[in-house]
Specification:
By secondary structure, the chain is α/β, with parallel strands linked by helices. Helix content is 20%, strand content 29%. Strands 3-2-1-4-5-7-6 form a seven-stranded mixed β-sheet, sandwiched between helices. Bound molecules: S-adenosylmethionine.
């Protein structure tokens, strides 16, 4: 979870990292997890994906709903959440998943497992050291060096996943921050899925 104030800064344009890699997502069912105001749900919908936008905040979901976008109000951090039939992270379901500015570590293996063959996960959130620039500063919400890469390496089916890109460090835009970013594809590392 990250703070509401950090969230309000992110209502506008999609992140450059998500804009860069979203076109690699095959058409199909996508997921924007902890979607906030829905900037990435709208981007994915504009690329022809059908998007499930999930957030615990119903007001955010009202702002997010639109053509090709369905919404689910869901608290991702309840105990035993994965046994809830509405839990959106389901093995092999999504051709694209976006998570930005949100971190709940127990979900990391589920995010990878929920990719369909050829599906792409784009993840970007704050990293350790961000406290010098503002919020979030709570270490619970800041990634450790290389943590997203490690989540791929620790997955029980790690050989299914191909890291397309990874960055970890300072960014000046859209505001000074420490961030970590990854783009991962499940299988499908073929000529048809060329990077560009
Ligand atoms: C900083 S905002 C990021 C929103 C969006 N991903 C973006 O970058 O524009 C964090 C979002 O996570 C959501 N969130 C926080 N805790 C959550 C939980 N336990 N379950 C579902 N959503 C949660 C908040 O409601 C908020 O919309």
């Amino acid at each position: 979870m990250t703070s509401a104030s950090a969230c309000h800064l992110q209502q506008g344009q999609p992140s450059a990292w998500v804009r860069r890699f979203a076109p690699l997502m095959p058409r199909g069912q996508a997921l924007d997890l902890a979607c906030g105001g829905g900037r990435h749900a709208r981007l994915l919908a504009s690329l022809g994906l059908d998007v499930l936008a999930v957030d615990r905040d119903p007001q955010s979901l009202l702002a997010t709903a639109g053509e090709r976008i369905s919404t689910l109000a869901f608290d991702l951090e309840r105990p035993d959440v994965e046994s809830d039939p509405a839990f959106p992270l389901v093995e092999g379901r999504y051709t694209g998943i976006v998570v930005t500015n949100y971190l709940h570590r127990p979900l990391l293996p589920w995010l990878l497992s929920s990719l369909a063959d050829g599906g792409v996960l784009v993840y970007e959130t704050f990293a350790q050291g961000n406290g010098q620039f503002g919020k979030p500063s709570n270490p619970d919400f800041l990634l450790a060096p290389g943590e997203l890469l490690q989540a791929v390496a620790d997955h029980p089916r790690r050989s299914d996943f191909h890291v397309i890109a990874f960055e970890d460090g300072y960014t000046a835009s859209p505001k000074p921050a420490m961030v970590q970013r990854i783009c991962v594809r499940r299988g499908g590392n073929t000529a048809e899925n060329a990077l560009g």
